[in-house]
Every structure is written in C-alpha cells, then in structure tokens.
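Researcher: Sequence recovery benchmark, item below. Answer with residues only.
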C-alpha cells in the first residue's frame, strides 16, 4: 500500500448526534466484533463507499442517519472506515480524550502499511446522554494496482484516556478488481 492510499481523512465536523445502534430500547445489545459496549462507553466501526453522503446526512438534524455501508473495496475506488461512539468520559475541562489506531492486514496475513493514529474525539465535549457521535478522524483507503485482492482485516483500537478504557473493534472488507471498461 502506498502512503498516499492509506490516508487519514481529517474532518472537522460539528455534527449533530444520532441514537446509538448497539442499544435497543435503552438496553445494550450483545457485542459483535465491530460494535461493543463497556458501561456507558460504546463504539462501532464500519466502512462506507459513499463518505460524502454520510457526512452530509450526519449534519442534518434528527435521530436517524441513512448511509451506505460496504464490505467491498473496488480497486481504485476509495472507501472510508468510520467510528461511531457514545459515552466517552469528560476530563476536568469537560472534554473527551478518545483516540484510536487503525491497523490493516492483507488477505495473506501481512501488515498493509503502517498503523495510523487518529483523534477520534479529542478536546471536544462528549455526546449527550446516549447520543451517538461520528468520529472526528477516519480511515480512508484505496486498493491500488499490485495490492492483493481478497479479504482484508481492519482493526480500530480505541482508547478513552480519561476513563482508561480500551476497546478493539474489528471489521473486514473484500478487495475486488474494478470492472473492465468496454
């Protein structure tokens, strides 16, 4: 993976919140590899092939955000890994210190690029109540010519520095060849 393709998309969003998806009727649902809870702290890691639509929808008021999830990366077409979270602990000044590290593994089990550190939600107030927040920084990637095709593994290692909580979320995507142009 070339350095230009493992970019960290830094988005300065003043985003409204939505309701956490790993809770139903106020109760925590069982953890999955990509969505977990630890007390009030919860997070979910997903990929989208239409990040601009997600960011635009996120800025609209209301509890529901419709967006496109994907588990496929077409060679040459960007996808973005995003973290949704709730319940980060506030520090003495009332702000969260939630950071992450994204780690990618190729279908053959080798590291794909270097780990990427991200400010998920740093020096910003926590979401209110059980509201869900979209991470400030995201993982952007592109499968380049010469990159392996097949199933990649992605890890988002989250750390709430205030609450001293750690959470590992795992997601997979399948890299496929782009359709041939006729």
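Model:
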């Amino acid at each position: 993976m070339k350095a230009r393709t493992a970019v960290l998309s830094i988005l300065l969003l003043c985003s409204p919140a939505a309701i956490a998806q790993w809770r139903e009727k106020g109760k925590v649902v069982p953890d999955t590899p990509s969505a977990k809870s630890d007390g009030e702290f919860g997070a979910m890691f997903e990929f989208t092939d239409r990040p601009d639509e997600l960011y635009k929808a996120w800025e609209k008021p209301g509890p529901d955000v419709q967006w496109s999830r994907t588990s496929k990366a077409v060679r040459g077409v960007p996808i973005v890994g995003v973290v949704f979270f709730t319940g980060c602990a506030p520090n003495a000044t009332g702000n969260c210190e939630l950071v992450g590290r994204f780690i990618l593994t190729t279908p053959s089990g080798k590291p794909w690029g270097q780990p990427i550190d991200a400010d998920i939600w740093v020096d910003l107030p926590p979401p209110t109540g059980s509201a869900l927040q979209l991470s400030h920084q995201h993982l952007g990637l592109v499968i380049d010519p010469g990159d392996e095709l097949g199933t990649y593994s992605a890890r988002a290692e989250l750390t709430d520095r205030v609450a001293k909580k750690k959470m590992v979320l795992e997601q997979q995507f399948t890299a496929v060849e782009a359709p041939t142009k006729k």
